[in-house]
Amino acid sequence: MAQAKILTDNELLTVLLACESTRWPERNRLMVLLSFKAGLRAQEIARLRRWHIQTPGGDIDTHIHLDKTVIKGGLKSKGASRPRTVPISDELRQTIIDYYRVAPGSYQDPLVRSERADITAVDHGAEIPEPMLSRSIVRLFQQLFRRAGLIGCRSHSGRRTFGTKTARAITRAGGSLKDVQEMLGHSNLATTQRYIEGDEEAKMKVVNLI
User: Fold this and answer.
1) How buried is residue 97: exposed, middle or buried, by Cβ count under 10 Å (0-12/13-18/19+)?
2) CA-to-CA distance for 39 and 45, rounded, in angstroms?
3) pTM beyond 0.70
């Protein structure tokens, strides 16, 4: 199977615009940006609780804290996925604020609730809303890509786009590919390198810089 398509800035904009015509635009925009601007997998978005992105005082944190309750493999994870923290960009922070205005909740609630808002579960004696399922998130991404008229995109497109764009920009920020590896949660740098798409224009430029 071909790798998921990496989106340009304009293509991502069309996906975000497609969110505006959906029933829950703020929620859907948040999920798109968690994927494209933080590199989260669909199952990680589904597992996020509000406390993963908030301070104990209720403020939005500077980072998303992806522990073993969230990452691929969950509490049994021993493979390629590691707990990690990902900085929250200004755009993502504002999107979280906009989402909280229309979807208030408590510290332990799932960040993205099930569309059936009346469904609850008991956690340590407290009733909390059920999270949106990862397969529902995958399906939503497919619908948004179709609305945007994009071909070759899958729910993993956001994570690949994040990895590639971060890799291209990280040296300008004073970092290295190791930082990209850590933000993606890979235990092996070779796994990170498979996420990153080459840039022919950059190759042409760099040979004239050396």
Assistant:
1) exposed
2) 10
3) yes
Interaxial angle between packed helices 134-147 and 9-19, expressed in degrees from 0 to 180 and rounded to the nearest 10: 110
Rounded to the nearest 10 degrees, the angle between the axes of helix 134-147 and helix 25-36 is 100
- Which residue shows structure tokens 């332990």? 108
- With residue 126 as reference, give the H or E element that holds it: strand 126-129
Residues 142, 147, 148, 150: what is their CA dihedral angle, to the nearest 10 degrees?
50
Q: Of 3.30.1330.130, 2.60.120.650, 1.10.443.10, 3.40.50.300, which CATH number belongs to 9-198?
A: 1.10.443.10
For residue range 8-59, list pLDDT tens digits in order.
999 999 999 999 999 999 999 999 999 999 999 999 999 999 999 999 888 9
Contact criterion met (CB below 8 Å) for 145 and 15:
yes
Domain boundaries, the chain: 9-198
The answer to whether the CB of 130 falls within 8 A of the CB of 116 is: yes
